[in-house]
Specification:
single chain, 980 residues, mainly alpha, 48 helices, 76% helix, 0% strand
Length: 980
């Protein structure tokens, strides 16, 4: 062969010598160089190829020649020379040789240690190889016959080396997947990438690569090695990269392939399976320990999934029970209670008859998990089927557990949960039996009382009242705690009442009316307790129907016939409150008096006090005074004084000064420190006794302010009456009054602050006028005297103006409507206010049945307001005030009731309270025409024409200002400011 090649060399050389212009000399030189390389004449080969490139530069073979030269120098480790020829290849037309050149250039850079450049060349090969081949086919058909090495795959694989030297691991999987043209190629790349990271001692980076490789495709020949390499890498990370359940799955998959392999001997197969089993179990255990360390629900789920993967294949006698238990524990810790329960049951089944201790433990674990799966807070997330399945499992497994392990320390808890499962499933007869048995068997258990109550509740659900009584009596006779027995007795009594109700309903069906049916039971019953209960039930039924007359009739029967029955206890008091609730205040006062006769101690006194308060509020002062005096006679001195002072104020407000004075003297006699009593005495007499004056001087608050002001009225009149000739005496008197009024203002009473400012304004005004009236001495020029007097009077006039202005300001700010407020506006002591007080009349009213029914059944605020308006219409503002107040208790935001209440208070003489009620109505309903109109009328009555005008301007439709709650004085205001 060598001789033939040498002969060929000679022939090619002869052609070149003898036919230098032959067109095919590019091929001659190419083939010559080929033979020279075959013969090992590399220097001659290099020279021949260089001649080819030089003399046939446009020949397609010139590019091949450059590539061969590059390969030659590359093999000689002459990187610079090789690089020169490879770059010459790239400068020529695109052919498959470009990929080879780039590939070799990449390795040159690898050899130089320049991995970024190497990556560039390798990437160019991977991304551009197919394009180059296409150009070659299009431009050089002659090359199609030549086998061209496709280095794309080799470049991609070799790219791994430089990538791991240059790039960070993040994104490597996506990077190489994007460059791979097939799953097979990608697998080869991942294999090398994973091993490369292991070589670089970066197991944490190798783990995700192995996982992707194993997930990509199953390879029976290589999966075992890859999964074991993955296992080793995870171990080498020392916990930095936790195991995954899928890792165990890959080990199991590899084990399945080993088990099916026919190429392995029995011993080899056994050894390999043992290794894979150990690795799979170790990964599951690692996951479990990590979950316990972090107490991480997600990791617990991962561990349970890993154990599940293990159990799909491996069942070694030595470890399978521990793995099953660990999986159950992991599921429970991850709150996958249903799955945990099922795993515990599987373990119990496996250990039945083999491991009693573990069987008992796993059975109890299943019960705990089943119970946790249907805990109250988790029910919403379960389907009905899941709930039923869990409760049935509790009953099934629990019953077997109690029977098999009666001495287990958790038997009591299990029995309680079995009973609870019956109860939750609506199986009340079984639940009743189970709970009763539990309570009787474990009276000292923490859930014993709960079980007792549930036993009663379960029995009650069956509506078997006889059985209910039997269960209750057994519980009462047991060793259960006394507190439970006390509660049980009340429950038994309540259910007895319900049983009675059923009897009453049956009777009602016969008579056609509940009240009549219960009355019939009361008449026919020979048992006093039953009869009393029937009458009480009939009374309550009448109340529910809103039949007040019948309710009172039945209450009187109950009181008369069964005065000692518990149903009669406090019945008068109940009727009194019911009467007040339904706006029957007169009847309520009467029942409160009756209640005080049968009650004892404080309850009796409170009932009598309520009666007295109602009489006084209704305007029945004589009757109210009689009752309140009776209470006061038995009270301590301080309390007696308060009660009598209250009566004195009520009589004074009614205009009965003598009666007011009498009660005030009694009050002051009981307690000389009573400011309220002293204030009334000052009001009625104007000159209180020394003791009353001393009390007022050291007291504080509204009574003190009121008393001091009225006490000062006599001194003010005396000051006002002094003539100009007694100027010094007058100035001295005024100085004392100023101090008194300052003391009154300091008490904080809005009404008497305004009153004091009024008097002070009048005082300054009077002093100024008095100065001008002082006659001039004989030896003084009258004109000069008058000018001097005018100069001294002017500051007093200005101070008077300021004081009147402050007085009006305070009255407006604090809602004061009084004679003093008018006086300040008019700057005068001659004040006239139109009468607005109304003495309540005694006429009755007739309430429409539908309105009264709403009051009786619903205590409807609107209905109560209607009743109150009727009382206003018949001229009884006292009753109207009570009913309006009751309506507002039901609905605080009812503006119409606030307006009506205000008008009732005005007619009762309390203008300031009326103004407050009108303002409250407007705060609730700013557009309430009646409230604006009534407030306008009130302001007009008290001299505030501008304020009245402003209120009336808020009313668009004056026709709304009518009805029982409308103050007609607004019309006079309209006329007054219209004339202006």
């Amino acid at each position: 062969m060598r001789l033939l090649k040498e002969k060929a060399v000679g022939m090619y050389s002869r052609v070149l010598r003898e036919f230098p212009r032959y067109a095919g000399n590019d091929k001659v030189r190419f083939y010559l160089a080929h033979e020279q390389r075959e013969l090992g004449h590399f220097d001659e080969m290099v020279e021949t190829l260089e001649q080819l490139v030089k003399k046939h530069g446009k020949s397609p073979l010139a590019q091949e020649a450059e590539l061969i030269l590059g390969d030659h120098f590359f093999d000689q480790n002459d990187n610079d020379a090789a690089e020169k020829h490879y770059r010459s290849v790239l400068k020529r037309a695109v052919t498959p040789a470009h990929d080879l050149a780039r590939y070799k250039l990449g390795w040159i850079e690898v050899n130089r240690g320049d991995h970024p450049k190497a990556m560039g060349y390798f990437e160019a090969v991977v991304t551009g190889g197919r394009g180059a081949a296409k150009v070659a086919r299009d431009t050089s058909p002659a090359l199609l016959s030549k086998k061209v090495l496709d280095v794309r795959r080799e470049a991609l694989i070799d790219l791994v080396y430089s990538y791991t030297e240059v790039k960070k691991p993040f994104g490597a999987l996506q990077y190489f997947e994007r460059l791979s043209d097939s799953a097979a190629t990608y697998a080869l790349v991942l294999d090398k990438l994973a091993n490369r990271y292991l070589v670089k001692t970066q197991p944490e980076n190798a783990v995700p690569v192995f996982r992707r490789l194993l997930a990509l495709r199953a390879d029976p020949e290589r999966d075992e090695d890859r999964t074991l390499a993955l296992y080793d890498a995870i171990k080498q990370t020392a916990g930095k990269v936790p195991a995954h359940a899928e890792d165990v799955g890959y080990l199991v998959r590899a084990a399945v392939q080993v088990r099916k392999s026919v190429a392995l001997s029995t011993d080899e197969r056994k050894e390999k399976l043992a290794t894979l089993e150990q690795c799979a179990r170790d990964l599951g255990t690692r996951l479990h320990l990590q979950a316990q360390k972090r107490d991480d629900k997600r990791l617990y789920l991962e561990a349970s999934a890993a154990y599940a993967e293990y159990l799909t294949l491996f069942r070694p006698e030595k470890y399978v029970r521990d793995v099953m238990k660990n999986r159950a524990d992991s599921l429970y810790a991850a709150r996958r209670y249903t799955d945990a329960a099922q795993q515990f049951e599987q373990l119990a089944l496996l250990t039945d008859g083999q491991d009693p201790r573990l069987n008992e433990e796993s059975t109890y674990g299943a019960l705990v998990a089943w119970r946790a799966s249907v805990a109250d807070e988790r029910l919403e997330g379960l389907s009905r089927f899941q709930i039923v399945d869990a409760r049935q499992a509790l009953k099934r497994v629990g019953t077997a557990f109690v029977k098999r392990y009666p001495k287990n320390e958790n038997v009591a808890e299990v029995r309680f949960n079995i009973a609870r499962a019956h109860f939750d499933d609506g199986e009340y007869p079984q639940a009743s039996e189970e709970f009763l048995a539990f309570a009787l068997a474990y009276p000292d258990h923490k859930d014993a009382a709960v079980a007792g109550h549930l036993a009663l509740d379960s029995t009650y659900q069956t509506h078997d009242f006889k059985r209910f009584s039997e269960v209750g009596n057994q519980l009462l006779a047991s060793r259960l705690p006394d507190a439970f027995k006390s509660e049980a007795r009340r429950v038994l009594q309540g259910v007895e009442g319900e049983a009675f109700t059923e009897l009453a309903l049956a009777s009602a069906e016969k008579t056609g009316d509940v009240v009549k049916g219960l009355e019939q039971i009361a008449r026919d019953s020979k048992d006093g307790n039953t009869a009393a209960r029937a009458l009480q039930g009939a009374m309550l039924a009448a109340r529910e129907k809103g039949d007040w007359s019948k309710e009172v009739e039945l209450a009187n029967k109950l009181i008369d016939q069964f005065p000692d029955a518990k149903e009669s206890d406090d019945l008068e008091l109940q009727l009194a409150r019911r009467a007040v609730d339904t706006a029957r205040f007169a009847e309520g006062a009467g029942w409160f008096e009756k209640a005080s006769e049968v009650l004892d101690g404080k309850k009796a006194t409170d009932a009598l006090r309520s009666a007295a308060n109602l009489y006084l509020a209704m305007g029945e002062l004589d009757r109210g005074s009689k009752v309140l005096e009776a209470i006061a006679s038995k009270a301590a001195r301080a309390e007696r004084a308060e009660l009598l002072a209250e009566l004195a104020e009520d009589w004074l407000l009614a205009g009965e000064s003598k009666r007011a004075e009498g009660f005030a003297k009694k009050a002051f006699g009981a307690d000389p420190n009573s400011a309220r009593a002293a204030a009334v005495l000052a009001q009625v007499s104007g000159t209180p006794s020394d003791g009353a004056a001393e009390t007022l001087a050291i007291s504080e608050g509204e009574p003190a302010a009121r008393g001091l002001w009225h006490s000062a009225e006599g001194e003010f009149d005396a000051f006002y009456g002094l003539e100009a000739t007694k100027l010094e005496q007058k100035v001295a008197a005024w100085s004392a009054l100023e101090q008194t009024y300052a003391q009154i203002i300091g008490q904080g009473s809005a009404e008497y602050t305004v009153a004091s400012l009024w008097r002070m304004g009048l005082g300054y005004q009077d002093l100024a006028e008095t100065l001008l009236e002082v006659p001039a001495p004989k030896d003084v020029d009258k004109a000069e005297w008058k000018a001097a007097a005018e100069e001294q009077a002017q500051p007093l006039r200005e101070r008077a103006e300021q004081t009147f202005g402050l007085c009006v300001q305070k009255a407006d700010e604090q809602g004061v409507f009084s004679e003093a407020a008018v006086g300040c506006r008019q700057k005068s002591d001659d004040v006239k206010i139109a009468a607005f007080r109304v003495k309540p009349r005694g006429e009755k009213i007739s309430v429409a049945p539908e309105v009264q029914r709403k009051v009786d059944l619903q205590r409807d605020a609107a209905a109560l307001s209607t009743v109150a308006s009727q009382w206003l219409q018949v001229g009884n503002p006292a009753m109207a005030r009570l009913v309006f107040a009751r309506a507002l208790e039901q609905n605080k935001s009812l503006a119409t009731a606030q307006t009506g209440l205000g008008y009732a208070l005005l007619q009762l003489g309390d203008a300031m309270a009326a103004g407050a009620a009108y303002r409250e109505a407007l705060s609730l309903e700013p557009s309430n025409a009646l409230a604006h109109g009534n407030l306008a009328a009130l302001k007009c009555r008290f001299g505030d024409q501008a304020g009245a005008r402003a209120e009336l301007e808020q009313v668009n439709d004056k026709s709304q200002l009518r009805g029982p709650s409308a103050d007609p004085a607004w019309k006079g205001c309209v006329e007054a400011y219209s004339r202006r």
